[in-house]
Here is the input.
Amino acid sequence: MENLKESFLPQLQATYGFDDVSILPGLSTLDPKDVDTSVKIGKSKLKIPIIASAMDSAVDVNFASRLSKVGSMGVLNLEGLQTKYENPTEAFNKITSCNSQEAIKVIQKFYAEPIKEELVSLRVQELKNKGIDAAVSVTPANAERLGFLARDAGADVIFIQATVISSNHRGKISLNLKDFIARIEIPVVLGNCVTQDVAYELMQTGPAGILVGIGPGAACTTRAVTGVGVGQVTATMSCCKARDVHFEKTGKYVSIITDGGMRKGGEISKAIASGADAVMLGSCFSGLKETPGEGYHWGMATQDPNLPRGTRVSVKNMVELEKLFFGPSDRDDGTLNLIGGLKNSMGMVGAINIQEMQKATVVHCPSLKDEGKHYQFVDGVGQAK
Here is the structure.
C-alpha cells in the first residue's frame, strides 16, 4: 500500500531564482575595463544592458533623457499618471506622502482618472524633443488606441505589457499581435512570459524583444495574489532557448530582457549569464534623486480597482544615477556601481562582450549566499542585506 501511495506523488519541476545559482569562472580572465557591455534592442543601441521599467515612480520624460545620456533607456508608461494629468505633481505628492495603510486607496483614486489621448501624443513629442529614442509602454487592451497615437507622435519602440501575455488570448478583447506588429511598423517588445513554448509562439508574431518575468518585482504581489510565477533564472533560460531555436529556424534574432527581481550587480550578471540580452529594473531607479517616486516605488498593477497585484514600498536610495550605474560605491552589498559589478563578473568569466557572457556556465548553488558568511549575518552587513 505504501508503494502504491508513493507512485501517485507528483513529480514537481524545480525552478531557480537568483539566490539559487552562481556563475562559474572561465578558463581565461579579462581586465574589466576591456569588456563591452553594449547591446541592441530593436533599432536602439544601448551602451549598457539596463532598461528602466515603465513605472511612474521610476520614469518620466526628464529621467528617460538622463538614462539615454549614459547609454541606457527608460520606458514611459502611456497609461500612467503622465497621460492622465497634464501636471501630475499633486498625484505624486499624495501617493508619496500618505501612510502605508492608505497607499493602495490613494493610488487607486488617482489612477482612476481617464487617459487623455492628447497627453499621449504630447509625452512622446517631449521625449523626441529631448533628442532620444522614445520608448513607451501600453497594455494589450489599449494597444490599438494608444499604440498608433504614439507611433504617429514619433515613438521609436513600443512595449506591450501585461502580467501574462500570450499569442492565443481568448476573450472579448483580443489583440492580434502578429497583425498589430506588422501594421505598427516600429519595433515592438512583448511581455511578460516565463516559458519556452509561450516565448516561441510570441516570437512568431514578429517582436523585437520579449520581457521575461511574472511577479519578481519589488512592489509586485502577483505571486501571492494569484500563485503564478517562475524563478527568474529558469524563466530566462527557458525563453532564451526559444530565442535560439527561433533564430536557427528563421534567422531573426529576438532579444530577451529579464524583467524584475534584481537590485544588485551580481543578479544582473546572473541574468545575462542565463542568456538574457538585457535586464529591466524598476525599484533601483525609484529611489534616486532624479526620479518622481521620491523614495517610493509602486507596480503597474497596484492601481487595479478590483484586484491590486502590487503595493507601495520604500526604496530610498537617494543617490544619483551615475553612482547607481558607475559608482564609486560606499556600500558593501552590490546595490551601487551595477555596471562595475557586471564588468567584474564578465572579467572573471573571460567574456569580452554580452554575447560571450551569455555562454557562461550557471550552476545550482544553494549555499552561495551564506557559506562562510556567519559574521556578516551576525553583524547584518554585506551578503546579509
Summary: The domain at 21-384 is CATH 3.20.20.70 (TIM Barrel). Residues 277 and 375 are 36 Å apart (CA to CA). The first strand starts at residue 21 and ends at 23.
